[in-house]
Amino acid sequence: MVTKPPPQSALRAKRRAIAQTTMAALFAALTAAGAFVSIPLPFSPVPVTLQNLFALLSGLILGPLLGGAAVGLFLIAGALGAPVFAGAAGGFAHFFGPTGGFLLGYLLAALTAGFIAGRPRVNRRTSPLRIILAVLAGFLVVYVPGIIRLKMVLDTDWGNALILGFVPFLIGDILKGIAAVLIAPRLRRAAAEQMDG
What we know:
Elements: H1 8-33, E1 39-41, E2 44-48, H2 51-62, H3 64-79, H4 100-117, H5 128-154, H6 158-165, H7 170-196
Antiparallel strand pairs: 1-2
Helix pairs in contact: 1-2, 1-3, 1-7, 2-3, 2-4, 2-5, 2-7, 3-4, 4-5, 5-6, 5-7
């Protein structure tokens, strides 16, 4: 009995699914790797890392669903104890510590940036303004749950929470944002070719 080969559409769908899974896993790994560039601040329990950049890029490059899935995978790995959080730490307890809100913020950053920029598509250019808005909004939403949680854990006022969890990171995030705006268009095209091809 001769077995018919699967139709081309089925092969394309399978290749697309493999490419999407690979991309999500890659950005989850990049977000985890961002923990190893961790600079502790003597006056704040929140360190400087590259994780917010990679979380934002997950949504910016892959779109909201895949980008959110990438950051979700990273968060699940950390919750299960993998050393993927800042300072090569892991464990579910980190979600209840002073940096727990920022971890949730990473997921919000991927979703927000992804929704604003949209899913990347072959032969469809995203306007620079839309990319800039996605980057600005993506970085800002990291701080909403981050500062709320920091205020609760430290039992401090809003002004002090902002000084500890927002002000020291502004210059670094501006530089990260510029980098994201510059590299996003090319990476979005490359991702679209891989996932839609």
